[in-house]
Design goal:
Radius of gyration: 20 Å
Structural class: alpha/beta
Number of domains: 2
Distance between the termini: 29 Å
Bound molecules: acetamide
Strand content: 15-25%
CATH class of the largest domain: Alpha Beta
Length: about 400
């Protein structure tokens, strides 16, 4: 049996938290910080882990990959932390991974991403492409048509996501009319060029991998140009409740996002999470899929810590293998082979109030296939085992 120390005198478990509170992706990352700290509060309110409180060491990497790498090194080298919860942009994750690998830490990454990656020092709790992009492509191709225009921010996630989306579109006899990249902080003139391209090509769908504050500029310019989302929506994996709060309901209405969680989900678990999130972080704080992953990954990690009695990455990983948790989206499970997570894909469309309404719920928990071994729009997992016993 693991001895339980007296919580009034015992040293806390220190964990690192790296989400930006400033910079271009601050809005969605603030939601991730809110989800992380909510889970830590809940665990501490229930007595901590093995009688020890959990203490978050929180830094603001300012949406800058280099600062993520430097702050990860500080957490592991100087703050005595082994577990880090953090990162939104894939460029940030790619700056942190060599550091956690060299300094023997473990990163928990709660953001959808482009896949095609594995690190023994990372647990991925956001969607891989077979858990959001495939379902989005299937829905769009069946509803709007097969002529796509791709527009993204200028970094790795959009390049790779666009490549994957191009495969899905072309295998469905569709066409990618153009692929445009804009800076992370686009000027009005750069957004205008995208709008001009939309007007000229008249696609069936605009697939946007624009992230952060530039998202609002794109959707607002689309709205001002008078395009009709019912005929030609912007579809995305990264336009969450946080970006919608920035752009406003009028610009967001009618557009589509695929994600495992939306603030509007009506299940009791989702309602409880949204209420607790808003009680802690403010009534107007947007609750995003990225915040939900940030929340449930802390619970999974600290349950593993309670079982292991140690925060050594190898001990935590051994306890996490095939571990399950009743997350707000549904019961999730860590895939022991890939360190990714079984998740519940959904497709939502924004209504006139700026709230996502689910337009397609496949109702299944999908095994992560981070390398997209299976490319079929009708088969979403590597081994045909799309649904795990729940
Ligand atoms: C992302 O860069 N993974 C959104």
């Amino acid at each position: 049996m693991i001895p339980v120390p007296d919580s009034t005198t015992a040293q806390p478990w220190r964990v690192g938290v790296l989400f930006s509170q400033t910079g271009v992706t601050r809005d969605v990352e603030r939601s991730q910080l809110g989800g992380t700290l909510l889970a830590i509060d809940e665990i501490n309110a229930a007595g901590g882990v093995l009688g020890r409180k959990v203490e978050a060491v929180v830094y603001d990497p300012a949406s800058t990959p280099r600062q993520y790498g430097q702050l990860a090194a500080r957490l592991l080298d100087e703050d005595g932390v082994r577990l880090i919860f953090g990162c939104y942009m894939s460029s940030a994750r790619k700056a942190v991974l060599p550091v956690v690998e060299a300094l023997r830490g473990l990163l928990f990454y709660p953001t959808l991403y482009e896949g095609f990656e594995y690190s023994r020092h990372c647990v991925y709790t956001g969607a891989a492409p077979n858990q959001n992009a495939i379902q989005l492509a299937k829905y769009l191709l069946g509803t709007y048509g097969n002529r796509f225009l791709l527009v993204g921010s200028n970094y790795v996630f959009p390049y790779e996501s666009n490549r994957i989306m191009t495969d899905f579109v072309t295998q469905s006899d569709g066409r990618v009319l153009d692929e445009i990249y804009i800076p992370l902080e686009p000027s009005a003139a750069e957004i205008d060029k995208v709008i001009a391209r939309i007007a000229k090509t008249e696609p069936d769908v605009i697939f946007s991998t624009v992230v952060g504050a530039g998202t609002a500029s794109l959707y607002q310019a689309y709205h001002a140009a008078g395009f009709d989302p019912a005929k030609m929506p912007i579809a995305s994996l990264t336009t969450s409740e946080a970006e919608i709060a920035l752009m406003g309901a009028a610009a967001a209405a009618g557009h589509i996002t695929a994600a495992p969680f939306f603030e509007t989900l009506a299940t009791p678990a989702a309602r409880r999470f949204v209420a607790a999130f808003k009680a802690r972080n403010g009534a107007d704080a947007p609750v995003t899929a990225e915040a939900e992953a940030a929340y449930f990954q802390v619970h999974l990690a600290l349950r593993a810590l309670a079982r292991a009695g140690s925060d050594a990455p190898d001990d935590i990983l051994a306890e996490l293998r095939d571990a399950e948790f009743d997350a707000p989206q549904g019961r999730v499970r860590i895939d022991g082979e890939t360190n990714h997570t079984w998740l519940w894909p959904r497709v939502g469309r924004v209504d006139a109030q700026g709230r996502f309404q689910v337009v397609w719920n496949p109702g299944m928990r999908v095994k992560p296939d981070p390398y997209c071994v299976v490319q079929s729009l009708d088969d979403w997992s590597a081994d045909g085992l799309a649904v795990a016993p729940v």
